[in-house]
Design brief:
Elements: E1 10-16, E2 19-24, E3 28-30, E4 33-36, E5 42-45, E6 50-56, H1 58-74, H2 79-92, E7 101-106, E8 111-115, E9 120-121, E10 127-131, H3 134-147, H4 153-167, E11 176-179
Antiparallel strand pairs: 1-2, 1-10, 2-11, 3-4, 5-6, 6-7, 7-8, 8-9
Family: Belongs to the peptidase T1B family. HslV subfamily.
Keywords: Allosteric enzyme, Cytoplasm, Hydrolase, Metal-binding, Protease, Sodium, Threonine protease
Subcellular location: Cytoplasm
Length: about 180
């Protein structure tokens, strides 16, 4: 199975100065039409101890987030173990393997990118991005980390998403940004 190309959103996570933040825009696109401008693509799980953002088909992502929370609960909140178990089931389950989405998940200690092809990746340089505007947001975030280290992680996420939204037609300026407790 190949990883689907995820369009129509931007999700960005940054770890900076001990703070972990994930943010996303709010645009849902159907083809070349904006269907909704304020979709909440970042969710708190496990009473706020885990934050997850998704890119891809919304119904698919909600199904996967529910499965992910089940895995987190089954493994005592262990993010890495829950992510690995989700990725294994997502890749092998006859129903789940057809779901098209990607997830960035973080707790107070780490951030991971989870895909349906079985990938559980720890991002380089503590910046994770998924979605159609992800490369714009990632480039901006890396520049901010290198040249504006006085900014908070939340400020970096907001500024990088703003840059992505200014460039990517599938990304808007309606941001939801969540910090990990």
């Amino acid at each position: 199975m190949t990883t689907p190309t995820i369009h129509a959103t931007t999700v960005l996570g940054i770890i900076h100065n001990g703070e972990i933040v994930i943010g996303a825009d709010g645009q849902a696109t159907m083809g070349a039409t904006v269907a909704k401008s304020n979709v909440r693509k970042v969710r708190k799980l496990m009473d706020g101890k885990v934050v997850a953002g998704f890119a891809g088909a919304t119904a698919d992502a909600f199904t996967l987030l529910e499965k992910f929370e089940e895995k987190l609960n089954a493994y005592g909140g262990n993010l890495r173990r829950g992510a690995i178990e989700l990725a294994k089931e997502w890749r092998t389950d006859r129903y789940l393997r057809h779901l098209e989405a990607m997830i960035i998940a973080a707790n107070a200690n780490e951030m991971l990118i989870i895909s349906g092809s079985g990938d559980v990746l720890e991002p380089d340089k503590q910046v994770a991005s998924i979605g159609s505007g992800s490369m714009y947001a990632q480039a901006a975030a890396l520049a901010l980390k290198a040249h504006a280290p006085h900014l908070t992680a939340e400020e970096m996420v907001k500024e990088a998403l703003t840059i992505a939204a200014d460039i990517c037609i599938y990304t808007n300026h309606n941001f939801i940004i969540e910090k990990v407790k």
